[in-house]
């Protein structure tokens, strides 16, 4: 298996990220959303690189923000030819490390109800479906499934804590 490393996203990554974002999603984030992710104190981005052909190549990214005891994974995408090589899993593990550092009790995210690959991926990473949000997405109009993963096993009820739907609407997740 190829060597993978995950590092912080920087503004120099944005051209590549926006290109992959447009190929990966039917409702891509605009550049401004990524800029905000990089500039706001409780949010951030991660970039995964693979050592391939004698050099490090960017192959995936993920974004998150923390607040109210929760860390929201807003998007993860991997270059199509590098999928099923554990890049997404490594990005999620790094987001989990960030969530622990931010003292979150819960990781949470939304995914399109038709996105079977992502649903399988998140299910395999310990996420469980909480509920559906009807007609959450545009282009095409579609329900979101809200997935969550508890971080502190000593608090089994924390999937019912301070989730704030208004936060979720500011940056729709996939
Ligand atoms: C979802 C996505 C990020 C997964 O990234 P990835 O690097 O391919 O995932 P990994 O290789 O780390 O997969 C880890 C495990 O998740 C499961 N999994 C991942 N993709 C899967 C798929 N398409 N079908 C079934 N299971 C899948 C598998 O169990 C896999 O382990 P395995 O390959 O040993 O069987 C990637 O498919 C992608 O970029 N999709 C387009 C964008 C998107 O939908 N993002 C998610 C919503 S924000």
What's the count of strands?
7
Order of helices and strands: EHHEEEHEHEEH
Strand content: 35-45%
* Gyration radius from CA atoms, angstroms: 15 Å
Strand line-up in the sheet with most strands: 1-2-3-4-5-7-6
Low-confidence spans: 154-170
Largest sheet: 7 strands, mixed
**Shape type:** globular
What is the arithmetic mean of pLDDT?
A: 90
The quaternary structure here is single chain
* Cofactors, ions, other ligands: coenzyme A
Instruction: State the helical fraction.
Output: 25-40%
Estimated structural class: alpha+beta
Layout of strands and helices, then pairs:
Blueprint (H helix, E strand, L loop, with lengths): L3 E5 L5 H11 L6 H9 L3 E10 L2 E13 L2 E9 L8 H15 L4 E7 L3 H9 L3 E10 L4 E9 L14 H6 L4
Parallel strand pairs: 4-5
Antiparallel strand pairs: 1-2, 2-3, 3-4, 5-7, 6-7
The structure holds coenzyme A.
Give a short synopsis of this structure.
By secondary structure, the chain is of the alpha+beta class. The chain has helices at 14-24, 31-39, 87-101, 116-124, 165-170, and strands at 4-8, 43-52, 55-67, 70-78, 106-112, 128-137, 142-150. A hairpin with a 4-residue loop joins strand 6 (128-137) and strand 7.
Give an account of the 3D structure:
This protein is of the alpha+beta class. It has a single domain, classed as 3-Layer(aba) Sandwich (Aminopeptidase). It is built from five helices and seven strands; from the N terminus they run βααβββαβαββα. The protein has a seven-stranded mixed sheet with strand order 1-2-3-4-5-7-6, with helices on both faces. A hairpin with a 4-residue loop joins β6 and β7 (142-150). Mean pLDDT is 90; it is low at 154-170. The structure holds coenzyme A. Residues 24, 75-78, 83-89, 111, 115, 117-118, 120-121, 124, 174 line the site of coenzyme A.
